[in-house]
Amino acid sequence: MNHLPSHQTVLIVDDEPINIKALQSVLGDEYNLVFATDGEKALSMAQADPQPDLILMDIVMPGLDGYQVCEHLKANAKTKHIPVVFLTGKWETSEEAKGLELGAVDYIRKPFSPPIIRARIRNHLELKKTRDMLENLSALDGLTNIPNRRRFDQVYAHEWSRAARNNTELSLLFIDIDHFKNYNDLYGHLAGDDCLKTVARALQSALRRTADFLVRFGGEEFVILLPDTNAQGCHHLAEKIRTTIQDLHIEHQASPVARYVTISIGAVTCIDIAHCDRAMLLDHADRLLYQAKHEGRNRVCSAVLPAD
């Protein structure tokens, strides 16, 4: 593989080494190139991390042909967004139509012209980059610039599956800014927005592992997902976060709890994913948050599931 500044990766799928060499000489200076010589290997490489940005594939191959590989790719949620370009000696219009109907974005005939194949691959990768950028923007909360509820749902499902696969613990914090409506009423909504942004930055800074995932759940509520985290670690982090926010000393004269902005936290740990439920875990954290509020706020209420 060539490690190039573009960081965009093209997976070339062809069972003929001479074709691979020809494509390498045409595209190798612009992209990171990886290669597969059969359909099964291509499917495996398409699902690996990091995924290719584009797949350039022959149609006629031993085992799975290009059409079958494309069909598998488009049926898989993880790979369906990778653009597929067919490169083939088949000249029939019906073959081209079949490839495009299966979800390919282009169909280039052999023998190919190097300037044309470079231009078409560049165009498809630019479109892919734009789509990825829009996808990332749609997953961010516009005010705090941290992931939003939509992105949380995706990551939560992924981490739940990973915990089930590896038989590891999964913890979750449900966080609410205490008496935030009072804050908005006293200081105004612009000051409220600034408060939310400050709290979001502090929450993010309190997380030390890349796997820990903070999201603005809605309004003044935040959720932190903590993979591979036991009950003790979960409660310890929750307390650290609570004191971190309190120590910001954001003035809150309308709070009956303290002179400064505080938070309440519901902290829950699932120690056996096989006996937990994804929605139930989130709901339990929400109920623990309600308990923390009921007991006076500016506190953490913790629990472990499944209960003994």
Description:
By secondary structure, the protein is of the alpha/beta class. It has two domains: 130 residues, 3-Layer(aba) Sandwich (Rossmann fold), CATH 3.40.50.2300; 157 residues, 2-Layer Sandwich (Alpha-Beta Plaits), CATH 3.30.70. Helix content is 46%, strand content 19%. It has ten helices and ten strands. The strands form two sheets. Strands 2-1-3-4-5 form a five-stranded parallel sheet, sandwiched between helices. Strands 7-8-6-9-10 form a five-stranded mixed sheet, sandwiched between helices. The chain is elongated. The termini are far apart.
Q: In brief, what are we looking at here?
A:
With 308 residues, the protein is of the alpha/beta class.
Helix content: 40-55%
Low-confidence runs: 1-5
Class by helix and strand content? alpha/beta
* Shape assignment: elongated
Rounded Rg? 25 Å
The named CATH superfamily of the largest domain: Reverse transcriptase/Diguanylate cyclase domain
Count of β-strands: 10
* Total number of helices: 10
The proportion of strand residues reads 15-25%
Biggest sheet details: 5 strands, parallel
* CATH architecture identity of the largest domain: 2-Layer Sandwich
Gap from first CA to last CA: 52 Å
- The average pLDDT score comes to 92
Strand order of the largest sheet: 2-1-3-4-5
**CATH topology group of the largest domain:** Alpha-Beta Plaits
